[in-house]
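Can you give me the bound-state structure? Components:
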Amino acid sequence: MTTAHRRLIGYAVRRTAFALVLVLLVSSAALVLVDLAPGDVTAELFAAGLGPEAIARERHRLGLDRPLADQYVTWLGRAVRLDLGTSLRYQRPVRDLLGERIGNTALLGACALAVATLVGLPLGVVTGSRRGWLPRAVRAASLTALSVPPLISSLLLALLAARTGWFPVGGTGLAEAGPGALASAATVAWHLTLPTLALALPFAATIERLQSDATAAALAEPHIQAARARGVGDGRLVWRHALRPALRSVAAIYGIIIGTLFSGSFAVEIVTAWPGLGRLMYDALVSRDIYLVAGCAAAGSVFLAAGTLASDVALAALDPRLRQDAP
Amino acid sequence: MTKTSKIAVTLVLAGALVAAALLARHWVGGAPAGRAAGPSRGGELVATNRSEPTSFNRYTAVRSTDELISRLTQARLVRIDRTTDALEPRLAERWTVSDDHLTYTLFLRQGVQFSDGVPFTSADVVFSFQAAYDPSSQMAGELDVAGQPLQVTAPDDHTVVLTFPSVYAPGLRMLDGLPILPRHKLVAALREGRLGEMWGLATPPAELAGLGPFVLAEYTPGQRLVFTRNPHYWRRDAAGTPLPYLNRLVLAIVPDQNAEVLRLEAGQSDLMTSETRPEDIASFRDAAAAGRLQLVDVGVSRDTNLLWINLRPDAKLSPARRAWLQSEDFRKAISYAVDRQQFVNTVYLGAAVPIYGPVTPSFGGWYVPGLPTYPYDPARARALLAGLGLADRNGDGVLEDRRGDPVRFSILTQQGVDTRERAAAVIQNQLRKVGVAVDVVSLDQLALIQRFGTGDYEAMYFGVETTDIDPASNVAFWLSSGAFHFWNPGQPKPATDWEARIDELMRRQVTTIDLAERQQLFAEVQRIFAQHVPALYFAAPEVYVAMSPRVANATPVPARPQVLWNADVLAVKEGGAR
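Here's the bound-state model for the whole set.
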């Protein structure tokens, strides 16, 4: 085994250990914070008309009358064995609930990331390399997209879908899809358009802004100027010579974007009735389902850790100096 | 312009033209309206519901979606007709009452089968009561009379005898909340103490059985529940046609109410399981005028919000603040200070009626017109406040008490419920005009309930659902010992003489059989309540129900579920394809 290989393995082990600690810390913090928040899952029973005695019985049955430290230690003991406990609200294993939703969120996140990248990157290159009304218009659109929260963009797109009938207002459509993988895929794609756009727009704008600045900076580098002086064409200069170094700034924030996709999906999933983790976590937070909140937070931190790792790999691929300097 | 820019401009323009053309076609033309025609057997309706179920076991799950699923898939011995509030036979086709009004003999329908084909007998009724009184059940409180359970026996397969521990005026009305469970499916679990674990959300639908009009065919978490016709359902219409009319009923889970409204307007759903918000009524009226929706005004709601001040003796108030904040005159001053018509216009956008007490006109014979009221009169409000020693001593526009402390208190209300937040803001604004400063604090529902439970608040604006108009079903509100006696719940003995009087009247009311006498007793209760205003009521919303033109045979009512309470007779209009 070469030194480079040993370094790479050591690096992977350290990153994995860091990811595990991150997941544990985030889920523990989520559990403790929600437990400390006023009210618990049994307060919903009061709204449903149950008296204090029935609520006290239910609290005892769910173990909510035990001290927080006791509850936490029990949960932690199970969590290290990958048993995330039982949802207080749904009375089902948290692992099963996450399993039903995580694929939907991953699909939505992946599509949103792809759209954001495919739209944001080329536009960023164009606005960073050209002058005139088109870059200005794109820049204005980006600023608008950045300033509109996903909740509002989801509602606007849902309104558009309702008024025009171009897209369904919500859901995955999978349950209504016809037989066959192709029909299912087409139905899901049709239903996915609205939430994907709502989630992707602000990220596309972020990528466009970053890429625009990075492209402009790369084009001002001496070696690019020298190439221009040697008569290299504009298109080749931008797409061949400036693009690669300019991609570094976008690659550096990919990890954060992937982590933020999860939090951004809260509002989008609720408005568009997309059955993902964001919506599950929102419901869990509202009903103080502590173990489900912890599970969702753990899943979210897995997304973040995976995103950071992907970002590091992308950076290393783009910048040979990083590969050589790898710890 | 470079070549790249030209291509980009061309693409953008082409896209914009296509989009404009499509938009114009859809917006100008509108969605095609469903054609009205007579109901027929078959078809599917889609209802949207905002929350997920928590279990298919109604005995352990008490939230509104769980109750709705139970209404669709299970049946009761008797039912309260939501349009007349009269008791009507269901699985029990008739009943007799003993002279002492303690024993009810119910005669069950014969030939009834569960959805899995197993015959229904009195053993299922006895079992259901056993399950309801099991420690894992949340139903026991609803079936207790004076804190005691009912005795249930079955002399034969089609007769059930219920013995009440004491006379209970509403009698069998309490059974409207008891779904009858299949003994053959659950008896082993009850014996083994596992009833609470049964019929969770992971249960395959085929394992569930019920006597309701529908069976659960599919549950896709986060997406929808699909109900299909119960082939063994026992009801038929007047022409002898087996019910339900619908082949399928889909309950789509749409957490956001804006999205629910958009789906309905777009024709992607047929109805919502919750009432229409005031802000949606205008657009629904337009859609109804264009034939794209049906909009029905079903009358004044029974569920009202109320403002109460914490009158608990352990309320965290200084003696000086307690002197004015907990005084009866202060509450009357609030009532005088709030212009209810403006409240109606601002909070409900005009779709409500001003009220002064908990019993609205929709309570039928229990409603008493002409009770004492404290209508809008800011001058009288100021006079009452002055009588409490509250005056603007420093000329800043806010009253001060005798120690010079400002007359200021906080109202907690529920975050995210627009009508409650708007109402609290209106109260705040109107009280400011008489010199009372109010801080509005919005909390999420669970935090609000927690603060109510601990008594750590000054005033609260909130409300809960009314299950039945019979006041005996709401004693937890009226009795001083009740958990829902909001202003001072769970009193070991009545804190005031008038509460003691209400306790006495309500106890008599609950055990009196004669309806006219009960109504007189309850009128006296309402009179005392109106005199002492322990809680303030400002408006009762008018309930509007919006449905697609495809929906036939609906008889919407003010109480939830406004349309699906009568799901077995719902139908799709002929020609009403989506």
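A couple of observations. Chain B touches chain A through 65 residues (CB under 8 Å). Chain B has a mean pLDDT of 91.
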